């Protein structure tokens, strides 16, 4: 007697679904949903071919009832140059319904202070220090130290006092920690509606922060253009991290 084909015993719709992005399979089932990245690993738009093969998730509330999330319909909101997400093991979630996704302001370097987020040479950076540089005979200039929010590397730049920069006014959204997925270098957060999304662990400061990411810990995500560019931990946690060093 010939053996029945596997598909007749286990319908394709019920076969285990895996993250085989290159084969175009469906996203993993469950509350956290992700869709395959529309960028081919060989696409010239992709800055990192291997990283762009990971699915870039986007969540939307399930209007059919309950708190489950499902993949958003339509094309994904993908920016190949965006905030270094393709360089991370875990892709950044997107928040397409963010009402303050594109808030910019042009400001003079004399008005920039520590903590401001600005664009320097096409890079989104957070200012860590502002100083005035006086020269003997030449005009005074402004020195800025910053952290590149895509690479988390420190940098410096000098500008004339009349220089203007593009400042970003990110939307801030509060989440609570659900758990840490160490295998995928990710932290699972839930919003006020208990919709969950994965955030790269690197946004939190790396593996050294894991012991402090307790369930229900409240954190604030700064969103720009629908993508998280910074995670702010509670002051008490920041103080503990400093004392640990």
UniProtKB/TrEMBL annotation:
GO CC, alphabetical: cytoplasm
InterPro entries per UniProt: NA-bd_OB-fold, Rib_uL2_dom2, Transl_elong_fac_P/YeiP, Transl_elong_P/YeiP_cen, Translation_prot_SH3-like_sf
GO molecular function, one term: translation elongation factor activity
Ribosomal protein is among the record's keywords: no
Domain Translation elongation factor P/YeiP central: 172-229
Keywords: Elongation factor, Protein biosynthesis
The protein's name: Putative elongation factor P
